[in-house]
């Protein structure tokens, strides 16, 4: 059932040099004066101090050549910054508390204009993540000091065919996936000619809504979190996503809509099928978890070892009272599921799906506040064997710009053994899912074999 993406071709040939020329870089400022203020960052925001790059590819539109798109985006960004003043701010450490915060000083967001010698259809497979795509979304502006680097940089790179790619580099402390989607929708709305159009979604920028309780109360055990000993007042922690380079084999494995439907049928079989709704995400995560745990080299030496999978859960609707859906910060926590590799191998698939479901259900209002308060008490990060990071249903490719919807939207990813990425298919969208896995070659061979074996 499952099919290796471009199965007949192995890993697709990818460009090593995009032959990009950078023409201009500048700062875009809010179109109206904004209040100078200091933005509090929640304990969820604080641990996400690293850049996220995304690219959004657009085919040629004769009514909107790249030059016209560039000017419209500059104007749109300037208008949007009035509502997202923190995007034009700068990170700083509070000298009294040592806490990271944003100085909303209207310092500006970055804007880069570039071109490549290639046409859009010459740069290769858009679905297979090419690390060189990072050149479509630069992470810093030349000439700016480290402390004055923009937290958000927008880049327009034109292709020789008249198409272009829109790249974003944003510090993760600014947005989670949903709030970034809302930002894109707002930016797209302001790119129309009428500058009086209201924003479709007014962002809620009050990060204090997720401030820890006083005093903090950690009311649950949190095996999904790992405290790190740090000097008092030192919040310059290495990101949980930092890693040393590894020699990994990367594959994109595709699950079609039929594959996902088949996994749902298997999840309904057996004594542990449970009564909860069986979702596409839960069955895909359970399938990946079993394959990843059993392909790990440590499992050969210790078949009964405990495997822990992490995956993000949006807490906006889980809090009491709920957060506004337009909350602009990070409102996701890492759910977890734990099981022995023996149980993952021999137990029914329905039970594995149920454990993933239970992991998400565990995050109630009180549990979420316990995690937030844990972050106030300890400095630490999510702790698990690996993380399933899903961009599958975020809907970036559904954002409607004046020049149309993107042909494809995806994050720029670096191959990591401990992160497995889900993203939509270029043809079937959210009906199918592409799974990016990077593992040592021996583990990858076993992972692939299990991936197909467990689909039958």
TrEMBL record:
Pfam family, one: Transferase
SUPFAM superfamilies, sorted: CoA-dependent acyltransferases
GO molecular function: acyltransferase activity, transferring groups other than amino-acyl groups
Domain of life: Eukaryota
InterPro entries documented for this protein: CAT-like_dom_sf, Plant_Fungal_Acyltransferase
Family: Belongs to the plant acyltransferase family.
Name under which the protein is recorded: Uncharacterized protein
